[in-house]
Amino acid sequence: MAPTVILDVDGTLVDTNYHHALAWQRALLAHEHVVPAWRIHRHIGMGGDQIVAALVGDDVERAEGDAIREAEGEVYAELIGEVRPIDGARELIAELAEQSCRVVLASSAKREEVDHYLDLLGARDRVDEWTSSADVERTKPAPDLVQVALEKVEHEGSALMVGDSVWDVRAACAAELRTLAVLTGGFSAAELREAGAAEVVESVAELCSAGAGDGALELFLAHLRTPLDA
Predict the structure, then answer these.
(1) For strand 178-182 and strand 102-106, is the pairing parallel, antiparallel, or unpaired?
(2) Fold annotation for 4-15+84-225
(3) Which of 34, 108, 126, 141 could bond to 170 as cystine, CB 3.0-4.6 Å?
(4) What is the pTM of this model?
């Protein structure tokens, strides 16, 4: 059975984390909530259904959560044209396909944002499936998105997740999946390891032979063959 690789999108394959931090900051400010950008960044990777409560509390979530999320979406729509793929993202997707891996892009972004990223990465014909926030009731750090990603390819056998945030790692751990983490989301190696990452590298470029040299992809795929409790 072919191994399954679940690739997070925001911050892992496309350089969006700081765009999202700015969008959330502007949306919160529009509703008279002043939150410093560094605090918002620490929560990027957490799903939009949970981030408002995490930043400004449950009372604000109940009263204004949907309005703040709508405002964030409007601001981000103005920024999404500036987003670029992260170095090595297209190459990694291509190499995993060549290695006969089943590849799922696991994103909690809105469906229209995921569509944009699929085109930006040229990934529609190179991956087996993808997710969006519409697929789950609870996003990361809940494991639902990871579980749906596996279900979409009728997963059996070995699987691995690649992500950039502590929220990715925690979601994968909750789904009993190993995570290989990258630093391109702005979280430190220590934070990612503390969250449970099995390995940390600088970027996805290091996971393909076009990035860090021959053998890197083989080392990456070796994680798929290693038992989770090893």
Answers:
(1) unpaired
(2) Rossmann fold (3.40.50)
(3) 141
(4) 0.90
